[in-house]
Amino acid sequence: MTDSSPGAGVQTTNSSDTSTASGSDTSMTLAALQDVIERTYGLRDRSRGVSTSVAWLCEEVGELAQAIRKGTPAQQRHEFADVVAWVVSLANQMDVDLAEAVNGRYAAGCPRCGTIPCSCPM
Asked: What is the predicted pLDDT for the residue at 48?
């Protein structure tokens, strides 16, 4: 699987910011994730543009599908993370607050029937 994470191939320098996404704490808010992705890849991804970023997202979804079918749990986690990162990058490029979008759509449960669990007919 190729490294097509947002901003792949970008060389960076160390900054005074000591926060990392690879620490032992696995919880991160959507706002914090958007901030990390923006600071890490924002300039590079914006220079690519939305259309190219959508293409990368589609490639990552394909890699996720392959990992789900044939990959190891580690490969599956890797591809899930890449898909989420590309969605976040696109949201940043489109000035969409993902926390607001997700809360507005799913906080009350199913957006169609409004219940938890969903009671829509299958």
From this structure: 96
Task: Report DSSP state, residue 23.
Answer: S
Cis peptide bond prior to 6, omega within 30° of 0: no
Is the C-alpha dihedral spanning 43, 104, 112, 110 positive or negative?
Answer: positive
Q: Which amino acid is at 97?
A: D
How far is it, in rounded angstroms, from Cα 53 to Cα 41? Answer: 12
Expressed in percent and rounded to 5, the helix, strand and coil fractions of the chain are 55, 0, 45
Cα-based angle 26, 81, 116 (whole degrees, multiple of 5): 75
Q: Is 112 within the bounds of a domain? A: no
For residue 101, the enclosing domain spans 30-106
pLDDT one-digit tens code per residue, 37-74 = 999 999 999 999 999 999 999 999 999 999 999 999 99
Q: What are phi and psi of 25, to 5 degrees?
A: -75, 120
